[in-house]
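Hello again, I could really use a second opinion on something today. I've been staring at a protein lately and its backbone has me curious. You're getting the sequence in one-letter code plus the fold written as tokens. I'd be grateful if you could look everything over and explain what you see. No rush at all, and the record is pasted right below:
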Amino acid sequence: LGQALPSVAAPAGAPKSGGRTVDDINFQSATADFEEVFDNVAPKTPYAKLLLLVSMLFKGGKVTAHERTALKNLIISNDENVLCALEVFEMERDWDDLADSFRQITQLSKTPQ
């Protein structure tokens, strides 16, 4: 008694009411848990925060494996654009905007300078 039942995941991308997918709902649930941890036991360095955010976005299907790898490399190289995206995210807490910013940053990093 009093124990939670294990959750059963639906197939990835399975439609849910209101046009949202199970992946969207799972990501929203995960981000709510993440925000609680991020607020109460926040990683101490910007790099730890960024790596955690990239991991969450990848697990939520918001960035691709290629983008995740590129973002990790940019974080390690102390890319100013990625740090700016973190600053904006910390103020706005908009996951879609963060994913879009990361996508644009990875595209910029591919273009010849």
The chain is about 65% helix and 0% strand.
